Amino acid sequence: MDPENTRGRILEAAAVLFTNKGFHGTSVREIAKKTGVNLSLISYYFGGKQGLLEALMVNFLEDYIKNLEEAVKNPRHNSFEVLMEMAEKSLFYMQKHHLRARFVLREMTLDSTFVREITTTYLMKEKHLYAMVLKKGMQEGVFIPVTIHWTIMHFRAMVQMPFLHHQYVREVFHMQPQQAPFVTLYLKEIRSWVLKAVVNRDYLEREKPHRFFSQSL
Prior knowledge:
The protein contains 11 helices and no strands. By secondary structure, the chain is mainly α. It has 2 domains: 1-47, Homeodomain-like (Arc Repressor Mutant, subunit A), CATH 1.10.10; 53-213, Orthogonal Bundle (Tetracycline Repressor, domain 2), CATH 1.10.357.10. Helix 1 packs across helix 6 (98-108) and helix 5 packs parallel to helix 8 (148-164). Mean pLDDT is 90; it is low at 211-217.
C-alpha cells in the first residue's frame, strides 16, 4: 500500500464529507469507511479529525501559492500577463480540486484561532505576490496608480468567488464552476475588469497589436 496514495485518498474522502456534512457533522469512522481503510490508519497519518482538517488546508494552500509563484516567475510576461496568469492558474487549480477549494475557502471565512494559525502565513505570501506584480506594473507604466490593498481584495475576491459561492453560481448563472468551459468564460470577465480598472490606457493603446491586448474593451 503506497502511503502517499493512501494519504491522498483519505484527504479526498474527508474533503467530500466535510463539504457535504460539515466538519463537526463528519466522524472519522465515516471517513475511514468511505476511503476503505482501517480507522487506526487515519490516526497514524493525521492524529485524528483535527489533524485531517489541518492537512487538508495546508496541502491546498501550499499548492495554491506554488501556482501563484510559478506565474510570477515567468520571465516572458509583462505585469498584466502575469496578473492574468495568476488568475488562470488559481482558477484551474481550484477547478481541479473544487471540493477542497469549496471547503477550504469556506473554512477561511470562519474567524477562529485555529484557522488563523493555519492561514496567516499563506495569506501574507499571497498578498506579497500580488503586491509585487501591481507595484512592478505601476513602475513600468502598465498599470495606473491604484491602492494596492484594495485592488488585491477586489481581484482575489473575483478569482475565488465561484468556488466560495458555488451555489450562487449554479442557481443564478446556471453553471457549475467545475465544468470544463467555466474557467475560460470567467477569465474573460476578469480580464475585462482588469483592463478597465487597472491597466494604463496609454500603454494599452501602444500595445494593441500584442496578442494579449488584441481584444477590444
